[in-house]
Amino acid sequence: MSEILNASHLNKYFYEPEKFQALKDVSLSINKGEFVSLIGKSGSGKSTLLYMLSTLDTDYEGTITINNTKLTGEGQNELAKFRNEHIGFVFQFHFLLPEFTALQNVMMPARKLRKYSLEELKERAMEKLTMMGMNAFANKPSGKLSGGQQQRIAIARALINDPVIIMADEPTGNLDSANSKIVFDIFQDLSRNNGNTVITVTHDTDFARRADRIIEIADGEIVNSPE
After folding, report:
1. What is the total count of domains within the chain?
2. Is the CB of residue 176 less than 8 Å from the CB of residue 211?
3. pTM of the model
4. What is the domain range of residue 157?
5. What is the mean pLDDT of the chain?
């Protein structure tokens, strides 16, 4: 398997209300198509690490390379463009616009790329909704759908630009066990059959242990990361 992400000697500090080291010399490598769960107690640094890997947080020491591109030191405009093209985001809360349809929500990240015509965008969005089993709800306002349905739409939105990596922060945190299993199965299928790398932060032990690899973080350090 080829390496898709490399993080080397990451250190992260917070300075309010006093100086605190949140991550301590963290290094890791993740391969293309791998499904990885980041676990740890609240305050361990796992979400901080995810936000650094995703380039949303750039205030750190060390280097991050994704898809053979060194991202450390790049400007915000370059990072925003890279994220939109290469990284799909799924959060605990779906962040859909409730007054827009499922189809319109899924199309939004692709509009920024300006690579496709409106008809092509609609076709691509429908393909992603179909992958999620949500094509029948394409023209329904997202605010009228259930939490599990909205999360599947959020995953479709994350896929619209064909990202190499999907990064998810507690993607099942607001879901019941049945919908959590659906989301896991979707991620597993994307990893095994679509070649997407999936990196999730989760407190859900059942979800985490079914991933390809668990990376455990405690007190800002990786304490368990089997190859």
Report:
1. 1
2. no
3. 0.89
4. 34-46+75-224
5. 90
